[in-house]
Design brief:
By secondary structure, the protein is mainly α. The chain has a domain of about 100 residues: Alpha Horseshoe (Serine Threonine Protein Phosphatase 5, Tetratricopeptide repeat), CATH 1.25.40. Helix content is about 75%, strand content about 0%. Helix 18 runs parallel beside helix 20 and helix 20 runs parallel beside helix 22. The termini are far apart.
């Protein structure tokens, strides 16, 4: 009788649950949590109320409280794929990647057709650095729910890490049709275009990114890099200057401004920027950072240090043509011409972008010319150390 009376008055657990859901949709998270508290007090066995309160805590960034609620919901409904998936998502947000993957694997096993759980597993793979697995999971999520355009954005990011620049551009073009005002999407697409040698598209996308978010120092650097490859060195330096006004300790701006100064023949300014880049750079974490530092060491006359970093970059990304070309330059300067030729030949076979292809071809032709006119320039073919 009391339960019926509560229902009539809207004071039963289910009524509180729906009221809390509506408040959460309105962004009134504290009010929603207070109402979910009442739902749980009315019926502590109501798994959906625990799960919903976990969602509200999660939206507030209070992931430990959210995890506690999700675990309670899963204890009450252990075969509910959505609730198990929420627990896995929360573990991922907390950075507990092994636990997150174990939980989300169980969620996917409960319901292989649950698109969001597939996407959560993809995010976990991305956080673990397994970008191929991430792309595979996003493929499945998109097959299951093609209308969720966020999946295209996140797959694009994973594809960019795999140097799949065309796939990255295709995904971001789909995403931007639905979300045309997202600066970061233009930024990532612009960088992908640059990696394919399309400086016109890169500058266009990066200009749009800067228009939408003029305080993004990274976008200014990326556009400066695009200007450099397009041959507009004054624009390249200007954009890197703007980036450093926004973020004075942004070492990438010093790197690309240094390369722009080098192309303009300003060796003193180049050296100053590259020294700042090396001094300010944290320990490299991916192949691009190793590759950039390798070039900086090489240009500053420290080829042995550059070779060490280039080798690290190729350990992480073995067929990356830009790194093979950079290492080829270093090996050539160290007198190991046969090793340099091997790297440059491998770079050209790996479908490099037009800038890399031109650089590799030019150095390869020079080495081959030197070998023809002076056979003593040929070095050994030992594995680069």
């Amino acid at each position: 009788m009391r339960r019926l009376f509560d229902r009539l008055l809207g004071q039963d657990a289910e009524s509180y649950f729906w009221r809390g859901r509506e408040l959460a949709k309105q962004g009134r998270l504290d009010d929603a949590i207070a109402i979910f508290d009442k739902a749980i007090a009315k019926d502590p066995m109501f798994a959906y109320a625990w799960d919903a309160r976990g969602n509200a805590y999660g939206l507030k960034g209070e992931y430990l409280s959210a995890l506690e609620d999700y675990r309670k919901a899963v204890m009450l409904q252990p075969d509910h794929a959505g609730m198990v998936g929420n627990e896995g998502r929360c573990q991922w947000k907390l950075g507990r990647l092994d636990e997150a993957l174990s939980v989300i694997d169980r969620a996917v096993a409960l319901d292989p057709a649950h698109a969001n759980n597939r996407a959560i597993r993809a995010h976990i793979h991305t956080a673990r650095g397994d970008f191929a697995a991430a792309v595979s999971e996003f493929d499945r999520a998109i097959d299951l729910d093609p209308a969720s355009v966020d999946y295209y954005y996140h797959r694009a990011v994973a594809r960019s890490k795999l140097a799949d620049h065309r796939g990255c551009i295709a995904d971001l073009s789909t995403y931007l049709q639905a979300s045309p005002d997202i600066a970061l999407a233009y930024h990532v697409r612009g960088v992908a275009a640059l990696n394919l040698g399309d400086t016109t598209q890169a500058i266009s996308d990066l200009t749009q990114a800067i228009k939408l978010d003029p305080n993004s120092a990274a976008a200014w650097v990326s556009r400066g890099t695009s200007h450099m490859f397009a041959g507009d060195l004054s624009a390249a330096v200007h954009d890197c200057d703007c980036a450093l006004e926004i973020t004075p300790d942004l070492v990438a701006a010093h790197f690309w401004r240094g390369l722009s100064h080098q192309r303009a023949g300003n060796t003193e300014l180049m050296a100053a920027d590259l020294e700042r880049y090396i001094a300010g750079s944290p320990a490299p974490e991916d192949w691009r950072e190793y590759a950039n530092r390798a070039r900086a060491f090489h240009m500053l006359g420290r080829p042995e240090q550059g070779l060490t970093d280039a080798n690290h970059a190729l350990d992480l990304c073995p067929r990356e043509p830009t790194v093979l070309t950079a290492r080829g330059h270093i090996l050539a300067d160290l007198g190991r011409h046969d090793d340099a030729v091997a790297d440059l030949t491998a770079a050209l076979a790996a479908d490099p972008n037009p800038f890399c292809r031109a650089e590799a071809n030019a150095l390869l032709a020079r080495l081959q010319q030197a070998a023809t006119t002076d056979p003593t320039t040929s070095g050994g073919c030992a594995k680069p150390e």
